[in-house]
Amino acid sequence: MDFLDRYFKITAKGSDVHTELIAGLTTFVALSYIIFVNPNILADAGVPKEAAIASTIWIAALASLLMGVFANYPVALAPGMGLNAFFAYYVCGVLGLHWTVALGAVFFSGVLFLILTIGGIRQAIIDCVPRNLKFAIGVGIGLFIAFIGLKGTGIIVSDPATFINLGHVTQPATALSLFGLLFTGGLMALDIQGALLIGIIVTTLISMLLGLSPTPNGISDVISTSVPSLGGTFGELDIAGAWNYGIVSIIFTFTVVELFDNMGTLIGLTQRANLVDKHGRIENLDRALTTDAVGTIASSIFGTSTVTSYIESAAGIAAGGKTGLTAVVVAALFVVSLLFAPLIGLVPPLATSPALILVGAMMMNGIKQVNFEDFTDGFPAFLTIIMMPMTSSIANGFAFGFVSYVVMKSIGRKFHEIHPVMWAVSVAFLINLIMRS
């Protein structure tokens, strides 16, 4: 235990080993859905299903381990939602590229990430983000997380007339989610350690008792008889095919979306974990960005879409996680999940969604740091916040926030407040929006 304390600086960061273990388990439970969602999406692109399961788990484990050990961040990584959909339904679907060629594009985007990171460009981009927008990013991610949770509980549903509407709160699943939300919120109000995890477990057990989610009928529903194999995807990326195809626009889209999705997530999570100093600088950011770049390259080799930092890590941070030991626990649990994948699948979304709502609520704390008095600051911050949940994309929130910041400051003749990098980034966002429209 002394070694862990010294290596991860657990005591120095105001935590303890027990808390870090609970935080890692909490993050894993909130994130484990990716084990089932990502392989299904990749399978639609033609990726062998069993290999997709294995690649998803292994890359999540290895990338999370690297983030914990190298960067000492309580942040888990896994194949990114949105990026996997772009991979499967646009690159492989609309464009008709073979999935191995798409993996080649992921490889090139990872190499570009690494070059930008080593050259200090990614760090420079983050450092140039105005303090106002940094806090707005954290708030926007909080709303995005809460929005995902509200959809998962059924509290809000799609509506053809109003886009979203109130769901049927008397439906058993939604009612149970509401119970989980209030029960967990009550535990947090009482300052009970591991409240989020307790809430997830209790809600899952009740769901099983009420027949709203499956219960294990035997050992086969708990432990897999065989570990999924990587054989169908490992090393299958077609680098030459991607290069010969000349998919500059695809690589650019992968790069821009991943760059700012990951950047926004890291800013929000590090703020929540108190890894940001009084000047707004993020501790060990260069190592975290290097981990992300290496993880992206590795994901193409293992046979899955781009890996990224996950906003669900906020659940573990809210449970008290402050160091890389949290991420190491997540990595270990991903490896274990190779055997216990059926058991993990028994935790229903109605049990994990309330945790996301509560985490989103806690991340609203940063709103008091946003300066709304100056319209040239307040309006871009507002767009950053509102566009993340409304477009289901952290990157879109960045795009509207960055571009509007440059425009508002220019109209207000406050050119000295615009960092040169902000101009370049805003132009990149405009190009990306145009290319995607």
Helix content: 55-70%
Total count of domains: 2
**Mind describing the biggest β-sheet?**
2 strands, antiparallel
Spans of at least 5 consecutive residues with low confidence: none
Percentage of residues in DSSP E strands: under 5%
Radius of gyration: 21 Å
- Helix-strand pattern: HHHHEHHHHEEHHHHHEHHHHHH
The tally of beta strands, per DSSP, is: 4
Mean pLDDT: 84
Structural category: mainly alpha
The count of helical stretches stands at 19
State the end-to-end distance. 53 Å
Shape: globular
Give the spatial strand order of the biggest sheet. 1-4
What does this structure look like?
With 437 residues, this protein is mainly alpha-helical. It folds into two domains: 2-361, no CATH class; 364-436, no CATH class. The chain is 68% helix and 3% strand. The protein is built from 19 helices and four strands. Strands 1-4 form a two-stranded antiparallel ribbon. Strands 2-3 form a two-stranded antiparallel sheet. It starts with a helix and ends with a helix.
Jot down its keywords:
437 residues, mainly alpha, 2 domains, two-stranded antiparallel ribbon, 19 helices, 68% helix, globular
Briefly summarize what is shown:
By secondary structure, this protein is mainly alpha-helical. It is built from 19 helices and 4 strands.
Task: List the SSEs and their pairings.
Layout: H1 2-8, H2 17-31, H3 34-44, H4 49-71, E1 77-79, H5 83-94, H6 99-118, H7 121-128, H8 131-153, E2 156-159, E3 163-166, H9 172-189, H10 195-209, H11 239-245, H12 248-272, H13 285-302, E4 307-309, H14 313-318, H15 324-344, H16 349-362, H17 375-391, H18 394-411, H19 420-436
Antiparallel strand pairs: 1-4, 2-3
Helix pairs in contact: 2-15, 3-4, 3-5, 4-13, 4-15, 6-11, 6-12, 6-13, 8-12, 8-16, 8-17, 8-18, 9-10, 9-16, 10-16, 12-19, 17-18, 18-19
